[in-house]
Design goal:
The complex is a heterodimer of chains A (307) and B (541).
Chain A lengths: L1 H28 L13 H10 L6 H13 L14 H36 L4 H15 L2 H15 L13 H32 L1 H8 L4 H13 L1 H15 L3 H6 L6 H9 L3 H29 L7
Helix pairs in contact in A: 1-13, 4-5, 4-7, 4-10, 5-7, 6-7, 7-9, 7-10, 8-9, 10-13, 12-13
Chain B lengths: L7 E14 L2 E14 L3 E5 L6 H8 L7 E9 L2 E2 L5 H4 L7 E4 L13 H13 L3 H14 L5 H4 L9 H13 L5 E5 L7 H18 L2 E6 L2 H7 L2 E6 L2 E7 H6 L4 H7 L16 E13 L10 E13 L3 E5 L6 H8 L6 E6 L2 E2 L5 H8 L2 E4 L13 H12 L5 H14 L16 H13 L5 E5 L7 H18 L2 E6 L2 H7 L2 E6 L2 E7 H6 L4 H20 L1
Classes of the chains: A mainly alpha (307), B alpha/beta (541).
Chain lengths: 307, 541
């Protein structure tokens, strides 16, 4: 098992290398540079800046320099937030995004799972139809519509929750962003769980469990749900990577200092190191969560073994 | 043994089962009366769709959600039909238990055998998990599972079909039941395994004294184990009585038809002058098992240097249990698998030919599969399925000509050509297998490999398909490679027979020689397991 995990992590290195290489050159192809402002800088200043940031050297050299620093886990100085290094920016914002994403993920898994199982147990009855209708709404209504509506009702009219800000991660400040971020995921998880649960409830081994007079809990949770959760787990891998690396929309609307806004700011300002940093972080999360999914699979299904 | 003196443990009175479907109500069971006495074995016999399984499923409250029941199921003086689940669960799994047809899927793949055996004991017997596990071990010993201490911690996928069915039997006995309902428990198993499971059930019944209700379509099994028989047809019991009476003096024409359904007859031999169509020399297929980077190579010889030759018009029957390599051999002969050795078809060596080179020959060598449900595309009409091959092999035909050929092929397999615009799901298993045969025949092949073509069918349908295959062979001079584990079918259709075990041919010869004077022990065992039925009838007569 350890050998497998080690092998997978080792195998991620060439993947990361490729991602770094491709995105390094792609962002350089984009027209403009980090210091092209509306009012052009003086030639002398520009020259100095280029020198400090090694932008005057040939592209190959810049690339090799960057690879060297990434290998030391140093993502370099930010071009736009000039007093900060990328590492400093991420050290501050990434934990916030991870907390936000993880809370949303747990909420989605628990609420979506329960709704999905409830719908499957009442297949083609009113409860099923209402849950699935709600799930369809959850998927189709975008975040930037839900967020202002919730803010308006719960924040402005009722005054129960603050309308924005992180406030050092106070519980009341988390409720709205987490719920908004989780809603579409709840819908997807509910749909997936319902589908695989219906199939599981019809399977022969669940019939055996019923024929042997086992309790409803044993039939539904022990025998049906464990197998039915597998497709949900494989969906949650990529979904978790996306959630934990921040959401631009949610963070902007609720004014949360997470990593999500750096995607946009980095790209718009041609902040080369910031873009590269976010790309590497997201890639690492995707690789990590795919590994976690595979390990969870092995944990849930004894037929999958990595020895 | 007089049955009047015994106590009736379970009686089903005027049971009706309806299914509400989108196309209307289906009356699956229409007023059935069945009773069983303590220590008695009762068989319910019928073809698929006769309602025999649904009767018992309804009695146990296990119908699909669209099923409705009426009538009475009396156990210990109480009607258990329609009891709330909580009360019903005091009885099912404890006093009335079931074994199912599908040993491969009836156990939960995600839990160990020991845990699944323990569950009913914890729920009904109130045992602790530890005590239940200990008792589970005793049960595994009782049903003769090899290495029970190790197998108790095994997962179902680590066991064979026969072993899984033994585990199900162990589970059914866990709470000392009064009635054991066995729903086709041996249908999915090899003949020798089948015989072992039946012996085990008979032995356990003798020792533990429960009543057994045995649902089956196989009259051989009924003759072997049942005290009394109920014959079911389209949701009704058409005849019932003692086993001897049913077999010796069947009253209802349907019973007589079932009894008459053993494939019979012989194939006429082919003259020695017939040209050799297919010759296989030392065909070998190997699979690498579980190999990987830096792992020792593990090779399974699925087919081990097998040679034979087939003259035009001949049928070679290949017999063996699952895993013996018979299907792999069939595929290797058709060059569908990379294989060692040499296969010569029509004087042309075909081993080593590329897929493109094979394509021209495919028209003359066709394959029919076991599963008539999985082998036809559900999204194409029967006409499209049949004529599809013509688009590849006879591209010059117009759409109309192809349609005509499809009609001819359907007529040849005794299906109405007017049905060619329907989809496969609208047909029964036997009809689908006829469609699969028509799809083959439309290309006018010379060699047909039939891989268990009758195994998924009822006996009466099997007989018809065997007769159809013989007629087609005679009419078109076809050469068959007939793969089956069913000895009666093989005997009725083959000139020569090869018995395979673990990739090797253990015995080969003419059909009569093999069946009347088997030399090898394995062959004797196979025949013994399959033919017990007839011996028993002679004994009872």
């Amino acid at each position: 098992m350890l050998r497998y995990v080690f092998g997978r992590l080792l195998g991620a290195i060439p993947t990361l290398f490729l991602i770094v290489t491709i995105s390094f050159f792609l962002i350089r192809i984009a027209p403009g540079g980090p210091f092209d402002l509306e009012r052009p800088l003086e030639a002398k200043v520009m020259e100095n800046l280029n020198k400090i940031y090694h932008l005057n050297e040939p592209l190959w050299n810049q690339y090799l320099l960057y690879l060297q620093s990434v290998a030391r886990l140093d993502f370099g100085p930010s071009f736009y937030f000039r007093d900060f290094s990328i590492n400093e920016l991420f050290a501050e914002s990434l934990p916030i995004s991870i907390q936000l994403g993880l809370s949303a993920l747990c909420l989605a898994l628990i609420v979506g799972g329960i709704l999905g199982v409830a719908a499957a147990l009442r297949q083609n009855r009113p409860a099923d139809y209402s849950i699935m209708a709600a799930a369809t709404l959850g998927v189709t209504i975008p975040n930037f519509v839900v967020a202002p509506i919730l803010t308006l009702i719960l924040g402005v009219w009722l005054g129960w929750l603050p309308v924005g800000g992180w406030n050092g991660g106070a519980f009341v400040n988390r409720v709205l962003p987490v719920v908004t971020l989780a809603l579409p995921q709840i819908a997807v998880v509910a749909r997936l769980t319902r589908g695989s649960m219906i199939e599981a409830l019809r399977s022969n081994h669940v019939r055996t469990a019923r024929a042997y007079g086992l309790t409803s809990y044993m039939i539904v949770v022990v025998h049906a749900l464990r197998g039915a959760i597998l497709p949900v787990v494989s969906y949650l891998g990529p979904a978790a990577a996306a959630l934990l690396t921040g959401s631009v929309v949610i963070e902007t609307i609720f004014g949360i200092p997470g990593i999500g806004r750096y995607f946009v700011q980095g790209a718009l300002n041609r902040d080369y190191t910031l873009v590269m940093g976010t790309v590497v972080v997201v890639a690492c999360f995707v690789i990590l969560f795919n590994l976690v999914v595979d390990l969870l699979y092995a944990l849930l299904d004894p037929r999958v073994r990595y020895d | 043994m007089t049955s009047e003196t015994k106590k009736t443990v379970l009686s089903i009175k005027d049971l009706k089962v309806d299914f509400e479907t989108a196309t209307g109500t289906i009356n699956a069971v229409q007023g059935v009366d069945i009773h069983v006495q303590a220590g008695e074995t009762v068989a319910i016999v019928g073809e698929s769709g006769s309602g025999k399984s649904q009767t018992m499923m309804a009695a146990m409250g296990l119908l699909a959600s669209n099923g409705r029941t009426r009538g009475e199921v009396i156990y210990e003086g109480r009607n258990i039909l329609g009891l709330p689940v909580g009360k019903l669960n005091k009885i099912r799994g404890a006093k009335i238990t079931m074994i199912f047809q599908e040993p491969m899927t009836s156990l939960d793949p995600l839990y160990t055998i020991g845990r699944q055996l323990a569950e009913p004991m914890v729920v009904h017997g109130g045992l602790s998990w530890k005590a239940a596990k200990a008792k589970a071990l005793d049960l595994l010993k009782l049903v003769n599972i090899p290495e029970p201490e190790r197998k108790i911690n095994a997962y179902p996928y680590e066991m064979s079909g026969g072993q899984r069915q033994r585990v199900m039997i162990a589970m059914s006995l866990a709470n000392d039941p009064d009635v054991l309902i066995a729903d086709e428990p041996t249908t999915a198993l090899d003949v020798t395994t089948q015989a072992q499971i039946l012996d085990l059930l008979a032995d356990l019944q003798k020792r533990l004294g429960m009543a057994v209700i045995f649902i089956t379509h196989d009259l051989g099994i009924v003759r072997r184990i049942a005290d009394r028989v109920y014959v079911m047809k389209t949701g009704e019991v058409v005849e019932n009585g003692d086993t001897g009476q049913i077999f010796n003096r069947p009253a209802h024409p349907y019973t007589r038809m079932l009894l008459d359904a053993e494939p019979t007859g012989h194939k006429l031999p082919v003259p020695d002058s017939a040209p050799v169509l297919l010759e296989a020399q030392k065909v070998a297929v190997e699979f690498e098992l579980d190999s990987g980077f830096l792992k020792p190579r593990h090779v399974l010889r699925a087919v081990d240097n097998i040679s034979f030759s087939l003259r035009k018009g001949q049928t070679l029957g290949i017999v063996g249990e699952s895993g013996s390599g018979k299907s792999t051999l069939g595929r290797a002969v058709l060059n569908l698998l990379p294989a060692g050795g040499r296969v010569v078809f029509h004087g042309q060596q075909i081993t080593g030919k590329s897929r493109a080179e094979m394509r021209a020959l495919r028209k003359d060598m066709q394959l029919i599969f076991q599963d008539p449900f999985g082998s036809l595309s559900p999204r194409m009409t029967v006409g499209q399925i049949i004529s599809e091959g013509l688009m590849v092999h006879e591209p010059s035909l117009s759409g109309r000509q192809r349609d005509e050929r499809a009609c001819q092929a359907l007529e040849e397999v005794s299906l109405d050509p007017a049905m060619r615009n329907r989809y496969p799901h609208e047909f029964s298993g036997g009809q689908r297998q006829r469609i699969a045969i028509a799809r083959t025949m439309v290309l006018k092949p010379e060699l047909v490999v039939l891989d268990e073509p009758t195994s998924a069918l009822d006996r009466t349908i099997q007989k018809q398909v065997v007769e159809l295959l013989r007629d087609l062979q005679k009419a078109h001079g076809l050469t068959y490679l007939f793969i089956s584990h069913d000895l009666a079918v093989v005997r009725a259709i083959s000139d020569t027979v090869m018995v395979m075990q673990r990739g090797k041919v253990v015995e080969a010869g003419t059909a009569d020689a093999i069946f009347e004077a088997p030399k090898c022990d394995y062959t004797k065992e196979l025949i013994g397991a399959a033919m017990l039925t007839q011996q028993q009838m002679m004994e009872t007569a």
